[in-house]
From TrEMBL:
ATP binds at residues 3-7, 129-137. It catalyses: (6S)-5-formyl-5,6,7,8-tetrahydrofolate + ATP = (6R)-5,10-methenyltetrahydrofolate + ADP + phosphate. The keyword tRNA processing does not apply. The keyword Magnesium applies. One of its GO terms (molecular function) is metal ion binding. This is 5-formyltetrahydrofolate cyclo-ligase. InterPro entries: FTHF_cligase (IPR002698), FTHF_cligase-like_sf (IPR024185), NagB/RpiA_transferase-like (IPR037171). Keywords: ATP-binding, Ligase, Magnesium, Metal-binding, Nucleotide-binding. Its cofactor is Mg(2+).
Amino acid sequence: MLKKEIRQSVLRQLKAQDKERKAKLDRALLEQLLASPNYQKAKTLATYLAFDFEYDTQTLIERAQKDGKVVLVPKTYPKGRMIFTEYKPNELEMSKFGLLEPKSDQAFAKDKIDLIHVPGLAFNSQGYRIGFGAGFYDRYLDDFQGSTMSTIYPCQEVDFRSDPHDIPVRKVFTYAQGF
């Protein structure tokens, strides 16, 4: 299957998820992420502001703030450029992708980010991902030295061949037991 077809198939499955089951999966995935040594050691966590069919990052953001971590979210620019800036809920605006993103252009230094929680639509067993197709994360992660992780639903586990420019996520949490 081509990446475009995988993207469309997984997107359909994500949008068709039962809300109650999704909420249970989100809680189980959050517990795994919070228990990970990389999360516990991180002083700075970069995550994303999710679509409603994606893993619910709002609970992660709130927990990370309670845990005293600096929370960052992405801001995108033309030509696939992206920065992370500090999360300030009252300083967000709607992006052209229909997601909230920071108004600020103040980039947080990449080498000061301990952990990036990476979004994606599909992931293979080696941690390679298929995103929405703009390449923002592959470009950003190309020279990133910190930890990366993702939280995904069973329908997002797909076997596909990665491309040479793809950057794998180092730890992918998935939760299927009992659901």
